Amino acid sequence: MISLSNIKKTYPGGTGRKTDGQVKALNGISFNVDKGELFGLIGPDGAGKTSLFRTLTTLILPDEGEATVDNYDIRKDYQQIRNRVGYMPGRFSLYQDLTVEENLNFFATVFGTTIKENYDLIKDIYQQIEPFKDRRAGKLSGGMKQKLALSCALIHKPSVLFLDEPTTGVDVVSRKEFWAMLKKLRQEGITILVSTPYMDEANLCDRIALIQKGDILSIDKPDNIVRSFPGQLYAVHASDTHRLLQDVRSFPGTATCFAFGDSLHVTFKDAPSGSNAPSGAATGSPGEPQALLQYLQARNHPDATVEKTGPTIEDCFIHLLKN
């Protein structure tokens, strides 16, 4: 359904990943998305997600590489691709002076269809904003703008849907509602490629690609990426988190230490003999957690705790960046 091979893109000047005065946005990206799959592109701002989306929706051309969308080539068949995809950019881009209903009618007309013809596809989404159909789009809340933009992207019944950070800047409830909508759309057979900077949303996808600075770090099912984390992870907690971070990082046995909510996620050096962890993995010997606890108590952290915990996608992302 979507296929990329060695896609590269650079921009002249500016700030970022510079090479001879150019900014490398995409550095040989290759992956495939199957028909009907909900595929997530996970990475922070500046990772290259938007450049990749703009390439696949034929808004920009890559410097190198090949890509197809719904079996159409992004260079030769751009018009066919534009007729078959729905694109929701990261920034709200509908006409803010038009009402909800006017925006939807406009996009339906552009694609030679009507709201009535494809209403069943957008019904569950549009019914939530229909009471505000006479309100100008610029006056809607963030969550309502999101639902309107998705309705406009779906009004021509696309086979592929591109959603560039659709939940950025909206409340937690709207985020959950939006992902519930995506699950329903996938059941309609629509292939969905969605990007997000939120690591917790990765688990809602069928497969994900972790991307940073124009490079793909890993592609797999979320559970498989989590299971690939080498060694044991520990959660360290104490009331003075700022000082705790400094002290844990100064402990000789600490391999990695990063803030995670109100605790720290820590791995230790020196894997025990006979460990199944990969060579060079930081798993920690059985005595290290107790040694760290004693170390922290000696540095005036009387309430410190060190407990085993499971890794998350964010932990795996940090590990891949370090290696």
Biggest β-sheet, characterized? 6 strands, mixed
- State the order of secondary-structure elements, H for helix, E for strand: EEEEHEEHEHHHEHEEEHEHEEHEH
Question: Which strand order spans the largest sheet, edge to edge or round the barrel?
Answer: 7-8-9-4-10-11
Report the average pLDDT across residues.
90
Number of strands: 15
- Unreliable segments of 5+ consecutive residues: 271-284
Please work out how many helical segments DSSP would assign: 10
Percent range of helical residues: 25-40%
Radius of gyration, rounded?
23 Å
Q: Note the overall shape.
A: globular
Whole-Å distance between the termini? 32 Å
Strand content: 25-35%
What does this structure look like?
The protein has ten helices and 15 strands. The protein has helices spanning 49-56, 78-84, 100-110, 119-129, 142-154, 172-187, 222-227, 241-250, 288-298, 313-322; strands at residues 2-12, 18-19, 22-33, 38-42, 64-69, 72-73, 85-88, 160-164, 191-196, 207-212, 215-220, 233-237, 254-260, 263-268, 305-309. The longest helix is centred in the middle third of the chain and has 16 residues, at 172-187. The strands form three sheets. It has a six-stranded mixed beta sheet with strand order 7-8-9-4-10-11, with helices on both faces. Strands 2-3-1-5-6 form a five-stranded antiparallel beta sheet, with helices on one face. Helices cover 32% and strands 27% of the residues. The protein is globular. Mean pLDDT is 90; it is low at 271-284. With 323 residues, the chain is of the alpha/beta class.
